[in-house]
Design a protein that fits this description.
Blueprint: H1 8-26, E1 32-33, H2 34-43, H3 66-69, H4 71-84, E2 91-95, H5 101-112, E3 119-123, H6 127-136, E4 143-146, E5 155-160, E6 170-174, E7 177-186, E8 189-196, E9 216-218, H7 221-237, E10 240-249, H8 251-254, E11 265-268, E12 271-273, E13 284-286, E14 289-290, H9 291-300, E15 304-310, H10 311-318, H11 320-325, H12 332-346, H13 351-354, E16 355-362
Helix pairs in contact: 4-5, 7-9
């Protein structure tokens, strides 16, 4: 790989995290599940990717999300939120707010349309990101930050690119059975090592015994647990909806025989690669979402599956074209970047098809227009 070199301070932080991981591996009989390695690499206090001080998003970070591309993304979600609330003020709870740009764009769009948010709370596990959010959103006093999800909530829950950042176990098919891939030591570095799957991690894979030896993939127990938490919260609150936006597939597309190396991917300085042991703490590690497992967890926990759409179909249904039309084409310097961003968000060759939108709800129904392109039957 040809990847940019980190600064001396960043390299020192990565080395400190590597030492902490080595110590945990030594204390765990020289083996930890990959999900634990991923958790430490992303969330170890003060050192993990989301717990450290480096920029994550935008041109100075490692990847770009939809809110960073255009304020029209947040404005479109504002239209959706207002629809759900029947034109009344809506309560919003966002998980993993990144730089805070989605919150700002959404709140400002709700204000412009005359339906200001009744409340907007952010659950942010990263102290560093929370500090950045509080600084950039200081002009919005209605915002509050929570250390943990509330026990009850009624309104709209938003999780944009949250599920893909949750640690995943790795599974590999060997000798006709499934084994869990973990991490051991290799000198001062790390290496993969496999053990028998002691649980039922392969239980979410359709027809798991038909996949060939050497097949590598991920399981998603934490994503399912997160959705069960949302279900408990919405049911206790008396009603609401969870809007889950991420990249992924339904199970029968996720576990295709030809997808034999899984979906795990790392992002460092806008370069994608497949080595999770490269500079832990300085790069993002993600996996695509199994939307079948997520939807099933929600249904089993008492939520209604309202819609499963491509991102393009959702944004177009929610009114993105009309919002773009309001931008003046007489100012090409402003209009062209917005038009290009809308193309990226909706094009099947860009984010429009890879990203999906899953809506789970309790006590409410989506407008009929969102059902026109519903793909729930594929789950």
């Amino acid at each position: 790989m040809s990847l940019p070199e980190p600064s001396d301070d960043a390299l020192a932080a990565s080395r400190a995290l590597q030492q902490a991981i080595r110590e945990e591996i030594r204390a765990s009989d020289l083996w930890i599940p990959f999900s634990r390695y991923m958790e430490l690499a992303l969330y170890a206090s003060g050192l993990g990717y989301y717990a450290g001080g480096s920029a994550k998003l935008g041109k100075d970070g490692d990847f770009t999300t939809a809110p960073e591309m255009t304020p029209l993304f947040g404005a479109t979600l504002a239209e959706f939120a207002a629809e759900l609330a029947g034109g009344q003020s809506v309560r919003i709870l966002e998980f993993g707010a990144g730089t805070g740009k989605l919150a700002r764009d959404l709140l400002e769009a709700l204000d412009r349309r005359g339906t200001p948010a009744a409340s907007y709370a952010i659950v942010e596990l990263s102290a560093e990101l929370r500090a950045r959010q509080q600084q950039s959103l200081a002009a919005h006093p209605a915002l509050t930050w929570l250390d943990a999800p509330p026990s009850a909530f009624s309104g709209l829950v938003i999780a944009n690119e949250v599920l893909d950042a949750m640690p995943v176990p790795l599974l590999v098919r060997q000798g006709g059975r499934w084994r869990e891939r973990g991490v051991t030591l290799d000198g001062d570095g790390f290496a993969f090592a496999d053990r028998d799957d002691s649980g039922d991690l392969a239980g979410q894979i359709p027809e798991p015994d038909t996949l060939p030896d050497g097949y590598l993939t991920e399981a998603h127990p934490r994503q399912a647990g997160f959705v069960r938490l949302l279900a408990d919260m919405l049911r206790a609150g008396g009603g609401g909806a969870a809007l889950l936006i991420d990249y992924g597939f339904p199970a029968r597309e996720y576990y295709l025989p030809q997808r034999s190396e899984g979906t795990l991917m790392c992002h460092y300085r806008h370069r994608a690669h497949g080595d999770p042991f490269h500079l832990p703490g300085l790069q993002d590690i993600t996996a695509h979402v199994d939307f079948t497992a997520v939807a099933r967890a929600g249904i089993e926990a008492g939520l209604d599956l309202q819609a499963y759409l491509s991102q393009a179909a959702f944004l177009l249904s929610a009114g993105l074209p009309a919002l773009l039309e309001r931008e003046s084409a007489d100012d090409p310097a402003r209009w062209l970047p917005q038009a290009n961003a809308v193309h990226r968000l909706t094009s099947p060759a860009e984010m429009g098809e890879l990203f999906k939108v899953l809506v789970l709800a309790h006590g409410l129904d989506l407008p009929e227009k969102y059902r026109l392109h519903d793909r729930s039957h594929r789950l």
